[in-house]
Amino acid sequence: MRYQITGKHIDIGDALQVHVKTELGTVLDKYSQRPTDATVIFSKSAHEYVCETIVHLSSGLNAAAKGHATEIYAAFEACAEKMDKQLRRYKRRLKDHHRDRSEPVEHFGAASYILAQEVDSGGEEPESLQPIIVAEMETKIPSLSVGEAVMQMELAGAPVLVFRNEKKDGVNVVYRREDGNIGWIDP
Fold first, then answer.
1. Is pLDDT of 84 > 80?
2. Sign of the torsion formed by the C-alpha atoms of 97, 181, 64 and 142
3. Where is each Sigma 54 modulation/S30EA ribosomal protein C-terminal domain found (predicted)?
4. Fewest 10 Å CB contacts: which of 75, 79, 138, 184?
């Protein structure tokens, strides 16, 4: 397994890197036998340290967790605890989906755009209804079942996930509703 441990504007010592590899490796070995790589990013926000971890699993799913604390080791421990809880919670579902899936999740390329925010200039109509494109990137859309898409969205902590439905071969969307339930758009 590959680890990428970095700090944003802070120095990460060798002792912390060894601690992260050991502890995160223990958590991952306990619940998911085949992680491919993990990215751990430490940063400082005011008086707190923040630890963000993203683990890519061989099944194509991503698990993400974030921890805050006044000390850097405590921030990592909080993050590792959340990762442990997530993977424990979804252990059965991960295993069931992995048994049904003989090959890794297939991804399809798509264009992703960032649009400029419309600035209201005293209630005047904009000159054009065409949005201004600020950035254009390549993104990947996974081919998943609806259950896998919901699980992927929850593991990643994302509010929405666009995916290609394996059964119907069309693009679908799952999202977290304001009432806490999950919405599914199937055109």
1. yes
2. positive
3. 130-183
4. 138
